[in-house]
Design a protein that fits this description.
It comes from Synechocystis sp. (strain ATCC 27184 / PCC 6803 / Kazusa). This is Slr0022 protein. With about 120 residues, the chain is mostly helical. The protein has one domain. It has five helices and two strands. A two-stranded antiparallel ribbon has the order 1-2. The protein is globular.
Amino acid sequence: MATWYCMQGCGACCNLTPEDRPELAEYLAPEELTLYHSLVGADGWCVNYNHGDRLCQIYEDRPSFCRVKPDNFARMFGIAPAEFDEFASHCCEEQIEGVYGPRSGELKSYRQGLPKFEVDSHF
């Protein structure tokens, strides 16, 4: 089982291209969807994303849908807290692969840095 973590300097989640996320209206409230669309720049990236340092310029004040937290995932996706780490890790891998490619350094780095829990079996 994987433990979710945010890889600093990745920024894949800041690529907000709506066409890549056709299910937005299923998990965002109407006012959140409006806010989401207002954040999408002409290039598909969040207008608050700094490409130079690959960081969010409004990190402390970012919208709730940008916060990868168990309570947000429960609200948006119906994910139980016990399933959060695995689900969020999978979401990150998919987003990184979609933005940077399946052979990208970003995806490789994420997978190498992702902590794993080994199931300890006693016979």
